Amino acid sequence: MGCHRARSHSSSRFLPSLVIVAGLSLIGCGSPEKSDQLKTYPTSGQVTVKGKPVSGVVVILIPAPGSDPGTKGLTPTGTSDKTGQFIVSTYAQDDGAPAGSYQIVLKHPMQQSSGPKGVPAAFAPQIDGFGGKYVDPSKSKFSVTITEGQNVIAPIALD
């Protein structure tokens, strides 16, 4: 019986190179580049109604007319806690807002106590507890200019 020599596969010489190339290609497969995102600055504030803190108020910053074109389409937002305090988020939770001028709009989403006939209240549409009074940025009496560094929005006092 003859002896058979194991063939050497030329592809085995390329295996280490293939592993290196595959590894390098994965470096770019993480989270997307954030170079298109504007730098944000910590932004917070407080909402009160008749002098008392109110929770669940959604505070939305709408870029003011003539503001930096880079902020168009962004809606930095925060929701007040039981002390009325809120922290603004733009791209990630509590990351703040980009520098610029904003009109502030407010909503207080509330579940209706009952839905349309035969629909449980849990499935009823939410209503704005403020009746839409603070949702039009062109009529908002609240505004803020976000600058580099820590930003605390003047207390938002509603009646």
Tally of alpha and pi helices: 1
Under the CATH scheme, which architecture would be assigned?
A: Sandwich
* Number of E strands: 13
Average pLDDT for all residues: 83
CATH level-four homologous superfamily name: Immunoglobulins
Given the C-alpha coordinates, what overall shape results? globular
What's the CATH topology name? Immunoglobulin-like
Cα radius of gyration in angstroms: 27 Å
State the distance separating the first and last CA atoms.
101 Å
User: Topology as H/E string?
Assistant: HEEEEEEEEEEEEE
Largest sheet: 5 strands, mixed
Our count of domains comes out at: 1
Approximate helicity band: 10-25%
SSE class = mainly beta
Relative strand content: 25-35%
Salient structural properties:
1 helix, 11% helix, 159 residues, mainly beta, globular, Immunoglobulin-like, 5-stranded mixed β-sheet
Please outline what is shown here.
This protein has one domain (about 40-159): Immunoglobulin-like.
Provide a descriptive summary of the structure in words.
The chain is mainly β and 159 residues long. It has one domain: Immunoglobulin-like, CATH 2.60.40. 11% of the residues lie in helices and 30% in strands. Strands 2, 3, 6, 12 and 13 form a five-stranded mixed sheet that branches. Strand 2 (43-49) and strand 3 (52-53) form a beta hairpin. The longest helix is centred in the first third of the chain and has 18 residues, at 10-27. The chain is globular, with a radius of gyration of 27 Å. The chain starts with 9 loop residues before the first helix and ends with a strand. The model is unreliable at 14-33 (pLDDT under 50).
